[in-house]
Amino acid sequence: MNQLRELIRDVPNFPKPGVLFKDFTPLLADPRALALAVELMANPYRGTGVELVIGAESRGFIFGTAIAQALSACFVPIRKPGKLPRSVHGVDYALEYGRDPGTAQRLPQAGPTRAPGR
To answer: I want to staple 68 with a disulfide (CB 3.0 to 4.6 A). Which of 10, 34, 75, 77 is the partner?
Structure first.
């Protein structure tokens, strides 16, 4: 776990004063560390029947797709309003420094259960 922590840099006052941004691009550049991070995030959910992983842009896209693949699950991206072309479902999500509105595309049935918004 320390190996992963060492690959995440603190950037104070970004993107605004008082926020401590976690820059994980060094972790993304290390294939072994990235694989370990994905496994550590996916492992608690293995065998639990997870069918859908949701990720908010843009960090959630990076890790969410990898976790979904590791769990053999679908991935649904949460985008900023106005960025998806089809019918969407509105959602709010938490950030390190507040909340943001988002949208998820309405999906057709995904496996034995329905995706959110259907």
So the answer is: 75
Cα–Cα distance measured from residue 35 to residue 55, given in angstroms and rounded to the nearest whole number: 18
Q: Per-residue pLDDT tens for 30-72? A: 999 999 999 999 999 999 999 999 888 888 899 999 999 999 9
Sheet containing 52-56, strands listed edge to edge, beginning at the edge strand earlier in sequence: 52-56, 74-79, 98-105, 88-95
Q: Is 59 a catalytic residue?
A: yes
Residues whose CB falls within 8 Å of the CB of residue 43, separated by 6 or more in sequence, listed in order:
none
- 96 tagged catalytic: yes
Domains defined for the chain, CATH in brackets: 2-79 (3.40.50.2020)
Of these residues, 96, 99, 114, 118, which one is catalytic?
A: 96
Q: Tokens in use for 60?
A: 């959630």
- Catalytic: which of 59, 79, 86, 118? 59
**Structure pTM?**
0.74
Return phi, psi of residue 115, to 5°.
Answer: -75, 160
